[in-house]
Amino acid sequence: IFQQADIGKVVGKLRSSQDVNVSQKAKETVKKWKQDVGVNEATSKSASSASSSRRTSTSSLLSSSPSSSSRRSSTDAANRTVQSDDIGYTSTDSAPRDKTIELMYSSIGLGNANLLVKRAIDIEKQLFDMYDQSVGEEYKAKVRSLALNLKSKTNPALREGVVTGEISIATLCTMNVEDMASEEAKQRDRKLAEEALFKARGAESAQAETDMFRCAKCRGRKCTYFQMQTRSADEPMTTFVTCVNCGNHWKVQAMHAETNRTLC
């Protein structure tokens, strides 16, 4: 600013004045200007540095917070207990029954704590009544079975169904291991059972060859089949078909009477 203004030029010339007093005053004025400019620049740099530091610190804090929160949520969800959630419930005055309530709470581990503890209490009460208000071996075995299946990482639908009420407490407590299995496990078991049935019954049942079926895998029509009663006596027989070309096999639950007579 002083370099661009005439006053700066005038004062600069006065420093070489023949008058000692004028020269001295001019030098002191220039020196004072330089000091003031230096202080202002230092203050500006310091403020800028502090502001940048605060922005960096805040940015670092914000970027690290979700990760930390995510870790806590993951850990909490995997290890929820009545104690960790600091949730109270009315004791049954029976240590085994209270232990069952807390085990059911941890095994489900989903949803609002108040709803979760209600589900756990209802499950225990249902089991206690089912086994004649006894905490004997049958009661304990059922508790272990429920806990194992509810905790299963491969069957989240069971836990979710209990929490949402889609699976009632009464239904849950009467389910066996097969009932509680995930849909994927049920499909796998059905497929294995069908394959075992094909192998066991196919060898001993009279098989015939036909071109009335088309294989969905290779589109061929050369097939063998056999029939057997897999449902009630008044239901149509089930036809088991095997493709001669690729070995694919499938079953036909019901057939038109005319087609059935033709095959027979």
UniProtKB/TrEMBL annotation:
Coiled coil: none annotated. Residues 15-93 are annotated as: Disordered. GO terms for biological process: regulation of mRNA 3'-end processing; transcription antitermination; transcription elongation by RNA polymerase I; transcription elongation by RNA polymerase II. Pfam families: Med26, TFIIS_M, Zn_ribbon_TFIIS. Residues 15-24 have a biased composition (Polar residues). Residues 42-81 have a biased composition (Low complexity). It is found in: Nucleus. Residues 1-40 form the TFIIS N-terminal domain. GO terms for molecular function: RNA polymerase II complex recruiting activity; RNA polymerase II transcription regulatory region sequence-specific DNA binding; translation elongation factor activity; zinc ion binding. This is Transcription elongation factor S-II. It comes from Mucor circinelloides f. lusitanicus.
